Input
Amino acid sequence: MKLYMTEMSGNSFKVRVLAAMLGVDYENIRIDWENQAHKSSDFLALNPRGQVPVMEIEGKVFWDSTAHLVYIARKFGGEAWLPSDPLQMAEIMQWMSFAQNEVQFGLQWARGVTVYNRRPESFEGYLQDGKLALEVLEAQLSRTGDWLALGRVTLADIACYPYVKRAPEGDLPLTAYREVAAWLARCEALPGWIAMDP
Ligand SMILES: N[C@@H](CCC(=O)N[C@@H](CS)C(=O)NCC(=O)O)C(=O)O
Output
C-alpha cells in the first residue's frame, strides 16, 4: 500500500493516524508540494483533483481520504471503526460526509485563505460554514458525550479531527467550544495516536 501525502495535509493525517493506531504498514510517498508536484501531469493521472492524499491499494488508485479510511477500517479494523451494521454505518457516514462538507469547505478552506491566501474573496463564506461546523459539533458532543457517533471512537471522529484542530489558524478560535476542545484532547489521548505536524 502506498500513500501519496504531505506532512502539512490534514486529510493525509487522517489516514496516517488510523494506520498508526491499527499498526498497518504502508509506504509513505511525500510529494513535492512546494514545487506543485500535486498539479503535475503525472500526479493528475493519479488524482484529477490535484490533491493529496492518494492511495495505491492492491494495484488500484483511490483519491479522497474517505475512501482510504473506509478501506483501512474495514480491512484491518474489523467491526471497530466502521461496523457493517447498516444503521451504525449510516450514523458514521453522516459524520464522514459532514467532514467532507462543512469541515472542509468551512474550516479547512478558511485556513486556506489565512495560510495560503487561497480564494480570499470567499473568506466570509468559509467563516460562516466553519462556524456552523463548530456549532454542530459542539451541540452533538453536548448530547453524546465523549465521541461523535455510536458512543465510542469511530471513523467519524478521525475524519473530523484535523481541520477542527487547525480551525484557530483559519480565524475560527475554539475558545467558545468547550466540548469540541475536550473531544480533541480525547482523540489525542487514544492509544497509538501520532501528533499532527504543525
Ligand atoms: N476531500 C479530499 C480533500 C483533499 C484536500 O483538500 N487536500 C488538500 C491537502 S489537505 C490539497 O491537496 N489541496 C490542494 C488543492 O486543493 O489544490 C480528501 O478528503 O482527500
In short: The pocket of glutathione is lined by residues 9-11, 38, 50-53, 64-66, 100, 104 (CB under 6 Å). The chain is about 55% helix and 10% strand. The radius of gyration is 16 Å.
